[in-house]
Amino acid sequence: MIPKANLHTHTSFCDGTLSPDSMVKAAIEKKLETLGFSGHAYMARGGDGWCMSPTGTDAYRAAVRSLKEQYSDQIEIALGVEQDYYSDAPTDGYDYVIGAVHCIDKGEMLAVDSSAELFDRQVNEIYLGDVCAFVRDYYELISTAAQKTGADIIAHFDLVKKFNAGGVRFDEGSALYRDLSLGALEAAAKSDAIFEINTGGAYRGCNREFYPSPTILKELKNLGGRITFSSDSHDARSLCYKFDEARRIAKECGFKTAWTWRDGGFKEFKI
Known about the structure:
This protein is an alpha/beta fold and 271 residues long. It has helices at residues 20-29, 54-70, 116-125, 131-142, 145-149, 175-189, 200-203, 214-222, 243-252; strands spanning 5-6, 34-40, 76-84, 96-100, 103-105, 109-111, 153-154, 194-198, 226-230, 257-262, 265-270.
């Protein structure tokens, strides 16, 4: 059975609510075997308010390394980073890299997942109401995000659906959306990065469906892709949120194993 672990975890060094120490204590209380931190890497453009600063990055790395030693007899701690497509911050020295797309550069940095209101304003003002063009640009970026960021894990592959519960903004069942998402998936899967099943959007009440959708997961299985489970935690309560349900969905999509960080590296476990 896969160990209880979460590799996508944010703290007050970026847009999380708690210090790394508080997150470790919460993880121990929840009986996690591994806690991986993944602060948002510094971005020179578009990262204000949610990414680490250069000096904050140094402090984050030092804090997590200290906690590794302090709690080594209680929990395994890993030092990761969530590297956005547009971040040029160095990734050497981390245990692993999570690659992500949170922005689209159209002269100004457009946020993919900030708020429904901002999403609509950007589509209307920059894309002249063509939401499919926004979706297309997102999938073009995520298709190569692993190569661009050097990612070991690809984060929330279909994040662009965050504010689309019930298909209110675009039709996820359309041939166009299927072509865009599965075409990007085929390209991204060539990187051999692990895809996370991310329960964070559901935890925050944005969309009941996890990232990625079952349709995408089934195709990922056909492509020979690998998965891990992530709660994209920004607070203590969300750690390992609905992992039982995520495992059930993974099994229904054909997966029999998943990967997580254990004993200093990525290991494969039955689910």
